[in-house]
Amino acid sequence: MSKSLVIVESPAKAKTISKYLGNEYIVKSSVGHIRDLPKGKSKAKRQNSIPKDASPEEKARLKKEQERRRIIRRMGVNPDDGWTANYEIIPDKEKVIKDLRKASKEVEKVYLATDLDREGEAIAWHLKEALGKNKFEYHRVRFNEITKSSILESFADPKEIDISSSGLSYIFSFFVKLVIFFTPSSCAILTVIKFLDFSIPVLSVDGP
Q1: pTM of the prediction?
Q2: Does 105 reside within a domain?
Q3: If pLDDT is split at 50, 70 and 90, which confidence band does 54 have?
């Protein structure tokens, strides 16, 4: 019988839960978040410079468009492509992801046992995306206490990831990023939104 991979957030939880589940499960920890919107300069390729022989009007138009693309790259969310988020593995979590992928090589099922809150739901979604959303049979398990009975009960009746809850984390992260990168004053967010000329679809959430 093939083993199943279980991923929790805390290394301490991983050690305890491993004792309760037995040898049929490989229990690993994500050590919190593993992906996020880009921080600092984006890794995306820059567009070519403005042609020297372009007219003043064309140069102005291209400069504005380049600045718009620069802001979009820096935000990591593209309003021109269905609000697609460009998530990146957090630099100091590269080793964690490598370890999780190595552990998942011989499993068919992955149990996402991250915390119960909104952040935990988002981490579960990111883990699924990072490991390959169509590569394994994923299950979401939730428990209120680290006891053998509670854990075995949750594994006996696994659920799905709560997309609406994890999506709220995406929206929150996006607005926090606006505040961090673009707010020398309280009105700077409105300036950026006006410059980009977009509206934010906070009522429709399909995932982080």
Answers
A1: 0.72
A2: yes
A3: confident
State the total domains in the chain: 1
Is residue 188, in this structure, part of any structural domain at all?
no
- What tens digit of pLDDT does each residue of 114-154 get? 998 888 998 999 999 999 999 999 999 999 999 999 999 99
Question: Which residue segment(s) compose the domain that 12 sits in?
Answer: 4-34+87-165
52 in any annotated domain: no
**pLDDT, position 52:** 81
Return the closest-CA partner of residue 177 out of 89, 69, 91, 87.
Answer: 87
Residue 195 lies in a domain: no
Q: 47: which DSSP letter?
A: P
Give the Å distances, CA to CA, from 72 to 105, 108, 121, 122, 172.
36, 37, 26, 22, 17
CATH number for the domain harbouring residue 16: 3.40.50.140
- Which residue do the tokens 């600045």 mark? 67
